[in-house]
Amino acid sequence: MKNKTDSPTPATELRRQAEGIARGKAAQPTANLSPEQVQRAFHELRVHQIELEMQNDELRRVQTDLETSRARYFDLYDLAPVGYLSLGEQGMIQEANIAAATLLGVSRRTLIMQPFSRFILPEDQDIFYRHRKLLFATATPQVFDLRLDKNDAAPFPAQLMMAVTSDTDGIPMCLTVVSDITERKNNEERLSQAAAVFENTREGVMITDAGQTVLRVNRAFTAITGYTETEVLGKKPSLLSSGHHDPGFYADLWAVVDATGHWQGEIWNRRKDGEIYPQLLSISAVRDATGLVTDYVSVFTDITQIKASEDRLDFLAHHDALTGLPNRLLLFYRLEHDISVARREGMKLALLLLDLDRFKDVNDGHGHLAGDELLQQVAERLSVRLRDADTVSRLGGDEFALILADLTHCQDAAKVAGEIIDAFNEPWRLHNGAEVSIGASIGISLFPENGQNPEELLQQADVAMYQAKNEGRGKFKYFSEDMTQAARARIGLETRLRRAMASDKLCVHYQPQIDMASGRMVGAEALVRWQDPDEGLIPPGRFIPLAEQTGLIVAIGKWVLREVCRQGRQWLDAGLPPLNLAVNLSPHQLRHSDMGATLAQILDETGFPPERLELELTESALMERGLESARILDELRALGVRLALDDFGTGYSSLAYLKRFPLDVLKIDKSFIDDIPFHQDDMDIASAIIAMGHILRLKVTAEGVETVEQFEFLKAQGFDSYQGYFNSHPMPAEAFAALLLKQIEKIILKV
What we know:
The protein is α+β, with helices and mostly antiparallel strands. The chain is built from 26 helices and 27 strands.
């Protein structure tokens, strides 16, 4: 008899029959089953079927998840932002993702079985080989930078992360992650540059946190303040406070920073050694993404030198650079102030205008450096003689001005002027040991008598000084109304003279020079004339001195030279006989122009023969320049012109300089001719001059011959030529040419 457990259950029996039916075999009933057993058996089969179906669904779901995960893995692998490469032991690329192919600028298919070193710049390949060798030797992951060559594009910096693994066959492989680090390198470079600027800039930089605690400073901060970084870290910027500004200043400063995020301005701070100095400071707030202040950056420059330069420029704007005295601008400011005070207090003041006498001799004889030294001594000597309330100023050149404030009596100004003149007459010794002599001419104007403002007082003092110089120098003069009228007339004449030059109202007249022996015209002296439309012909005695004083004589003299040479060339071209044409040179022309170059240019432009041009110079003009005059005359003589000494006898009349200078002609002054034959002295002087001139092989000409007696005497003494009213007045060029033609006709008729 079988055990109960060995008997098949109804469900088992039914399952066996169902399987048999499924295999196509008729199931053999193994037992007689009751209906209840059959029903329970079918229920168990149904449950089993459901379990199987559930297991199948789970298997399908797992399979789907695996396929999805695998697809996601390959998507992540292919589309990763970095390149993935699998390299064999020899460096051949086994696998690569799309990102790697994109980084290297080729297709993924092209990468496979290519040596990775092909994409490395030659100079960086040793880096790759060294790290690959180390990787396989130690199995230690390697991270390093090098440059990769991108196909048809510029190389780029990359970071490689390499790890060792094995394939399914156990063969070692190198898994490589490639990242483009161009942006990182650029950031590093920018940070490096910023760090270099931070450390190497000449401006001091201080960074604090939001609570104004110092976090960092640069080298320039230390150089400017004297504090090291260690000494200020963790401290407050108030460490640098100078005490120069009150709390309100700082409150306003930070109010601006809080409102605008920035403040810039000048501030005074203190160095470590206690020195207070000026800064140009800029404070900027640094905010985070939410707008909260995280830091403050302060950048500052030490402007001590700039301030000193500004002070120096301000000083130079109001003072004379050579002497340190107030200049014209500051003189006007102080004069305005002193006039205001004098008007309010009912006081007087005086303005003294001082011009040095013989200062030019110092410049010419000892050089401009000596002249500058003398001006500095003059400034010092003037300054020590004045009160604190007074002002001494240098207006320019050798001209000074003095304001004497709080005068009780007008005569006090004269007393000061006299003391200055006496002091200036004392010898002046220069640093080179030379002793020089100068003087002073002073013009005085008074407030309120002579003017109500600085311009009027300065103008009146200038008029008075001009009068003092005219009266012999070394004097002082008060301003008067007569002086004003004369000065205005002089200014008006100067204005008209300038207009005359601009509108060709000047002309040249010619006075014949006659040969004593033959009576024939051998030359002419050219004399400038001014044909004024209102006054008519203005004599040279009125405008030549004015031209000398204003410097216009240089332009006038140059015009006369060019006009005479042009006219002379024209006469020669017209067939007139050649004549010597004499032109006067003023002392001013020798002092202030390059005569040699000017004359050479004129002769070249006009084509006038230089041997027919005679230049007349006065004794005083030559003696002013000394050795310089000899050089100038040699330069002129080298051009081929003749040289004449005009007005001989009125100056030094030294045989020594007559021998030294390359002269051709002596012209005896008219003052020695006027009284011949009535004054024996003049006759003796004339005789001596002719004898001396001939001994020196010079031609001698007499000026101003007006009578037959004078002519006969001079002819008897052997004078070579003469000019004067006895023969002819100066005349225009047309009249002179007609006179010359008439002389030619007489000669032809005699023949």
